[in-house]
Design brief:
Elements: E1 4-13, E2 16-26, E3 29-34, H1 41-48, E4 56-61, H2 70-78, E5 80-83, H3 95-105, H4 111-124, H5 140-152, E6 158-162, H6 170-184, E7 188-192, H7 196-202, E8 205-210, E9 213-219, H8 220-225, E10 231-234, E11 244-247, E12 253-256, E13 265-266, H9 271-287
Parallel strand pairs: 3-7, 3-8, 5-6, 6-7
Antiparallel strand pairs: 1-2, 1-4, 8-9, 10-12, 10-13, 11-12
The protein binds adenosine-5'-triphosphate (ATP) and magnesium ion.
The site of adenosine-5'-triphosphate has 12 residues, from strand 2 and helix 1.
Protein name: ATP-binding cassette domain-containing protein
Pfam family, one: ABC_tran
GO molecular function, one term: ATP binding
Length: about 290
């Protein structure tokens, strides 16, 4: 049994098909979801977090049906941590007070154990010293970490994180990577991000979504390999058929896709290069019939 099994999951909003017959399974380990704005990442994560229901298809979480009995849903939610993309904060609560509030909802009924757990997750996200500060007085990145702390309560078996690294400074991002890779050893961590370097540094598996469908599902190494021989460095401005190019800090141009410009030297592709090429190929495919 996988922690998460999605079969032919479809979700539409009016005329927008946010997810179109998606088949995905997740078990232990960290999976990164990449995709452009509107790709369907949040929709997918909300379905896994039991915050919304799919219109069609089958969703199994820890072998249970989230839309079966109320007891089944409660069993799933006990084992689930969720960081939404946007979270309204009760500004007048302290960081400790807010995370404790969620802990109460999650049935941490013993006061002593609850307080120890709240302190533990606040320490995990580096907020031990700011626990008594009001949420409204925290910086944006600190507030984001309060939200992350509540998702970590009770070591959930399924951890759903929608853009967890947004707004974090580099030190905090590195700390978060360490925390999540440790968690990935014992639970299914599913995170979305626009930072390909987070995925490259942290995720064993990467899923690329675009237009509500899965465009790639595999290891980071396999995704990077799709860009082999298609990335160059050159001194002069490249021609117009490159998919993208930019002048780097060294003054050379990094060229992705197209034909190699004169004097270009092949260079090792990054995950970002491969991701851009994958979506660029999609854009061409969409444009072709017009
Ligand atoms: N509550 C909603 N009502 C109507 N349309 C929605 C709603 N939520 C999402 N959509 C639409 O569904 C599609 C997928 O949205 P979703 O939020 O899942 O994308 P995303 O990949 O998370 O994007 P982003 O990177 O911007 O967060 C988009 O076209 C969006 O406009
Ligand atoms: Mg989103």
């Amino acid at each position: 049994m996988n922690a998460v099994d999605l079969t032919a999951v479809t979700k539409t909003y009016g005329r927008t098909r946010a997810l179109d017959a998606v088949d995905l399974s997740f078990d232990r380990g960290v999976t990164g979801l990449l995709g452009p704005n509107g790709a369907g990442k949040t929709t997918l994560l909300r379905i896994v977090a039991t915050s919304i229901a799919a219109d069609r298809g089958d969703v199994r979480l820890l072998g249970r049906d989230p839309h079966g009995s109320h007891a089944e849903l409660t069993e799933i939610r006990r084992e689930l941590g969720y960081l939404p993309q946007e979270l309204g904060y009760p500004g007048d609560m302290t960081a400790f007070g807010f995370v404790e509030y969620v802990a109460v909802l999650k049935e941490w009924n013993d006061r002593g154990r609850r307080h120890r757990e709240v302190r533990r997750v606040l320490e995990l996200v580096g907020l031990g010293d700011l626990a008594t500060k009001r949420v409204s007085k925290l910086s944006g990145g600190q507030r984001r970490r309060v939200a992350l702390a509540q998702a970590l309560l009770g070591d959930p078996r399924i951890l759903v994180l929608d853009e967890p690294t947004t707004g974090l400074d580099p030190t905090q991002r590195a700390d978060l990577r360490r925390t999540l890779s440790a968690l990935g050893g014992r639970c299914a961590v599913l995170l979305s991000t626009h930072q390909t370097e987070d995925v490259a540094a942290l995720c064993e598996r990467v899923v690329v979504l675009a237009g509500g469908t899965v465009r790639f599902d595999g290891t980071v190494t396999d995704l990077v390999a799709t860009a082999a021989g298609r990335v160059w460095l050159c001194d002069d401005e490249p021609g117009t058929d490159a998919l993208v190019s930019w002048r780097t800090g060294t003054g050379r141009h990094h060229v992705v896709g197209g034909t190699p410009p004169p004097g270009a030297v092949p260079t090792d592709p990054t995950l970002e290069d491969a991701y851009l090429l994958m979506l660029g190929a999609d854009a061409h495919a969409v444009r072709a019939p017009a």
